[in-house]
Design a protein that fits this description.
The chain has 683 residues and is an alpha/beta fold. It has three domains: 211 residues, no CATH class; 164 residues, Reverse transcriptase/Diguanylate cyclase domain (Alpha-Beta Plaits); 255 residues, TIM Barrel (Alpha-Beta Barrel). It is built from 19 helices and 25 strands. Strands 16, 17, 18, 19, 20, 21, 22, 23, 24 and 25 form a ten-stranded mixed β-sheet that branches. A six-stranded antiparallel β-sheet has the order 2-1-8-7-4-3. Helix 1 packs antiparallel against helix 5.
Length: 683
């Protein structure tokens, strides 16, 4: 999946989870605040009702006291007489202008150092009672506390024997005395009336019932939201497991690997650790599925997944990439880079050995490419930074590139990535991106290397070689692009191009009445898989009209190990059209004498390796060359020796009857114009 797709899935995941969590938290806070406000208002309503009642009683006391004083009684006499008219617990305190107590009834007095505030919708002047309040630390005064457990215990205290429910509810469980200022007609005095703020059991019960009711109403949507959040979280977990599920192995998929590997690499406590990203590849997996069935192939991948799951630690991860390729992120311990790399090699080698034993009765082979991920440190390696920009996909690409370097090399199972590989791959990509345009723009030029007769020393032939003259990079030698063309199949288009250019060149020589020199052109082994190749080559040559005998088609020795029947038939058809056919690089590989027996070739080209090596090797090579020339003579074949650089080699070949010599001793490959001049000089 693309990175854009992963971001969209991650965004969807966050959108579905976080709104539910936010709403649940917000509503929970709102419920607690609402419950507290409603409970406070309810308590204040009960308390305010009682305070308002006390104020009305205080007004009544003030009225009686004023009436008695209007009848001629003094303040003290009026206070004595008023007990007949008011409740016994209504003590009074009268202050003069200087706030001195001039009258006090009862055994307690107001504590004017502590004023009380009542938020009941009206303003009252009240002070604490000296006996109901105690002095606290630092001279502060606080209301005398009643333990909550005593209140709760008194509220739920069972009814006494013979006590009615109404009596039980009317019992006082909390009492607090205070002094309330009452309006008084005589402005010379200030009147305070002692009141008792009492909470009956029924008040507490009402508060409990109200609180439970409000809580129950608020808890219903709260529970629904909580259930919805849990369901959403479970759904997200299920969705996550589906998104990150590899349907083949039953384990985690590549998207999970990318996300989790990036998280591991970017953790701050991993900034000093060295990691290795491994591309683990099962060789010939499609062949395994073809032999044992698709189900057996999937079961093998599932077994690999289970094996790796048991071998990967907590701070590591793995997942299947595609096909039979797995990606692993492993930690690498060691004192230095060399030790860490060697430890990583040993661990991966051990994994490969154990994986090979997953199917004891079936041979399976693995290759691994490794990209080492060192810590990101400053120049002095004293400060390590977090890997904030770790690109897991790119790192895996490097590991895969390292593994591809060892393809076809059975002895090399583990390869480490280096930037030379990256340079080669960039070059291959550049070649693949530009080869079509280069062919269209005729950037491929024909170079000719002369062939000389060792007997006469005359120029008797040439081989057409390709050079890529790029408009952007200049001259590119064949070794830098031919292998890439062979791998991509573009080599067949280049073959057609070279045959056409040589045919055109021969036609121009004929028109210009130049000396006609036979020229050989290479035909790749990939071309022989093409149906009707002989007719195709004939059409390319006939488009310009030169004689077929002037063009020799060279086939590399490796082509003879493909479908021999098709090769034999194609060679016979080419000879029937008048072309000469040669076996190029004879002796470079595992030569098959059967090929010489079955295929009617015209020319045998001896590989230059016969003439290389030390003195003993050169002598043995001469024996092989001597017998090869004799064999070619007996088969009525012409012999060409290529790669000749020394006069002693030329003399030896002349004595053995070699027909033509090609090599730097005589001339290097050259442009067509230079070759034409050399032909004129030789003539």
């Amino acid at each position: 999946m693309s990175s854009a797709g992963e971001k969209r899935i991650g965004k969807l995941y966050r959108k579905r989870v976080w709104p539910s969590i936010f709403i649940l938290v917000f509503f929970g806070v709102a419920c607690v605040a609402t419950f507290a406000v409603f409970l406070y208002l309810f308590v204040m309503c009960i308390m305010g009702t009682k305070v308002v009642g006390h104020y009305e009683d205080a007004q009544q006391v003030s009225g009686i006291l004023s009436a008695l004083m209007d009848g001629g009684d003094t303040l003290e006499e009026a206070a004595e007489e008023m007990h007949d008219y008011i409740l016994a617990d209504r003590d009074i305190c009268v202050l003069d202008r200087d706030r001195n107590i001039v009258l006090l009834t009862g055994d307690s007095e107001p504590d004017f150092g502590m004023r009380l505030q009542f938020a009941v919708g009206r303003d009252f002047t009240a002070v604490a009672d000296s006996k109901s309040f105690i002095a606290a630390d630092e001279g502060l005064r606080t209301i005398q506390a009643i333990p909550v457990r005593d209140i709760v215990g008194s509220v739920f205290e069972p009814m006494g024997r013979g006590e009615t429910r109404a009596q039980w509810l009317d019992e006082t469980v909390i009492r607090q005395d205070y002094w309330l200022r009452a309006p008084f007609r005589d402005q010379e005095y200030a009147l305070y009336v002692k009141c008792s703020l009492q909470a009956q059991r029924q008040d507490i019960v009402y508060v409990y019932l109200f609180g439970f009711g409000v809580m129950a109403l608020l808890m219903i949507p709260m529970i629904l939201l909580f259930v919805n959040t849990i369901r959403t979280a479970l759904m997200q977990r299920k969705m996550s497991s589906l998104i990150y599920l590899d349907t083949v192995t039953g384990g985690r998929n590549w998207m999970y690997f990318q996300n989790y590997a990036h998280r591991i690499l970017c953790r701050i406590w991993n900034n000093k650790k060295t990691f290795a990203l491994v591309n683990l590849h099962l060789e010939r997996y499609q062949n395994y599925r073809a032999c044992y069935g698709v189900k057996a192939g999937d079961e093998l991948l599932e077994a690999m997944n289970g094996f790796l799951n048991a071998r990967v630690s907590k701070n590591e991860t793995f997942a299947r990439y595609e096909g039979a390729d797995f990606g692993l992120l492993l930690t690498c311990a060691g004192e230095n880079d060399e030790e860490r790399q060697e430890n990583c090699r040993k661990r991966v080698r051990s994994l490969l050995a154990e994986l090979t034993g997953l199917r004891p009765n079936q041979k399976i082979h693995f290759h691994a490419g490794i990209d080492m991920i060192p810590p990101y440190a400053d120049q002095d390696s004293k400060w390590y930074h977090r890997r904030k920009d770790a690109d897991v996909e790119q790192l895996y690409t490097y590991a895969n590139a390292a593994r591809l370097e060892s393809d076809g090399m059975e002895e090399q199972r583990i390869t480490f990535f280096d930037h030379d590989m990256l340079g080669r791959q960039k070059w291959e990509r550049w070649v693949e991106d530009n080869m079509e345009a280069a062919l269209h723009n005729e950037e491929f030029q024909v170079y000719l290397q002369p062939k000389y007769s060792p007997a006469s020393g005359k120029l008797v032939g040439a081989e057409a070689l390709v050079r890529w003259i790029s408009l952007s990079t200049g001259l590119i030698t064949p070794s830098h692009f031919i292998p890439i063309f062979e791998r991509t199949g573009f080599i067949t288009q280049l073959d057609d191009y070279m045959i056409s250019r040589v045919a055109k060149m021969q036609a121009e020589w004929m028109i210009q009445r130049r000396k006609m020199i036979p020229v050989s052109v290479n035909v790749s082994r990939a071309h022989f898989a093409q149906e009707g190749l002989a007719e195709h080559i004939c059409e390319l040559v006939d488009a310009y009209g030169p004689s077929h005998e002037l063009i020799e088609l060279e086939v590399t020795e490796s082509a003879f190990f493909d479908d021999k029947e098709i090769l034999v038939e194609t060679v016979k058809q080419l000879k029937a059209y008048g072309f000469r056919v040669s076996m190029d690089d004879f002796g470079a590989g595992y030569s098959s004498l059967n090929s010489l027996k079955d295929i009617p070739l015209d020319v045998l080209k001896l590989d230059g390796e016969f003439f290389q090596g030390d003195e003993e090797g050169a002598k043995r090579g001469e024996i092989v060359v001597r017998e090869a020339i004799r064999l070619a003579r007996d088969l009525d074949m012409c012999v060409v020796a290529e790669g000749i650089e020394k006069k002693e080699q030329v003399d030896f070949l002349a004595r053995q009857g070699c027909d033509m010599i090609q090599g730097f001793y005589y001339a290097k490959p050259m442009p067509v114009e230079e070759f034409e001049k050399k032909v004129e000089e030789d003539a």
